[in-house]
Design goal:
alpha+beta; 5 helices; 17 strands
């Protein structure tokens, strides 16, 4: 199946809408148990003159789906947005992001599932009367493993309902927490106004044997959630963001962070047995 939308421009009052066309292609087997679809749109703009303008350019999405226990699941998806921008001349505001990409995959093995996802942004610029920001080379890479398959499929079903019952949602979330799981954030990096921030983390939660959301569950999470994280900040943070310098210096003086010979700041966070530490120094909670 293929659907093509031809370019078109139309006007509503003093606002002009324009798009340069879009395409949707989909294929599936006879029983609709698995298939794929592709969607792309060249450009879409909204122009209200000095009041503001919006542009979305070069959006494409490619996905494959499969049916598991009568639930349709997107098991592989890739997306790319070349550009998105907003400009309000009369307020002195402008926002623009370039080359936003996402990749995600879901795999099912032995009634457990794993999720892998990457999210990258080449650049973001924010300009306003108070300050200007430039965000570059943003990357998030993470994975979740040992997630209960049945609870995940039930969550997929409920999330597609217009008005899901709160009790249903509570029961599904309870099932997910009860099964436990683990995750890994291999990268959470970005550069803002030439200040570099890098981090990574690993976490896990043991299965919960209780049957209700009570103080017992809260205690279980506090005692069985394990987290380890590494945080790194480049040495020019104080020159670029002077307002945060006293706070970071306080962390260093308190032993929560360390400074190397070049002035770069780092900290190792850990949460284990209900105790949060930074660089092996306990943090009161």
């Amino acid at each position: 199946m293929s659907v093509n939308i031809t370019p078109h421009t139309y006007q509503i009052d003093d606002i002009e809408f324009s798009h340069q066309g879009a395409n949707l292609t989909a294929s599936t087997d006879f029983e609709f148990l698995q298939g794929d679809f592709d969607f792309d749109i060249a450009n879409f703009t909204v122009d209200a003159g000095k009041k503001g303008s919006f542009k979305l350019g070069g959006l494409s999405v490619t996905s494959t789906f499969a049916t598991i226990d009568d639930v349709m699941v997107i098991d592989q998806s890739d997306g790319l947005l070349k550009n998105i921008a907003f400009n309000a001349q009369d307020q002195g505001l402008s926002y623009e992001a370039n080359d936003i990409s996402t990749t995600s995959s879901v795999s099912f093995v032995d009634q457990k599932l794993s999720i892998n996802a990457d999210f990258t942004v080449n650049s973001v610029t924010v300009n306003n009367p108070d300050a200007n920001y430039t965000l570059k080379d943003s990357v998030i890479e993470f994975s979740l493993d040992d997630i209960d398959q049945q609870a995940y499929l039930e969550l997929e079903q409920i999330s597609r309902q217009l008005n899901p019952e709160p009790q249903q949602m509570t029961e599904v979330l309870m099932a997910l927490v009860s099964a436990g799981g683990k995750g890994n954030i291999s990268k959470f990096n970005f550069n803002i106004n030439d200040v570099q921030f890098d981090s990574s983390a690993q976490f896990s939660l043991a299965p919960y044997q209780g049957t209700a959301i009570t103080d017992e569950l809260n205690q279980h999470v506090a005692q069985n959630l394990q987290l380890k994280s590494q945080l790194n900040l480049s040495n020019n943070y104080g020159q670029i963001f002077a307002q945060f310098k006293p706070m970071i210096e306080h962390f260093i003086q308190s032993g929560y962070a360390a400074v190397d010979s070049e002035g770069n700041v780092s900290s190792k966070l850990s949460f284990e047995n209900g105790q949060l530490t930074a660089n092996d120094t306990a943090i009161s909670m």
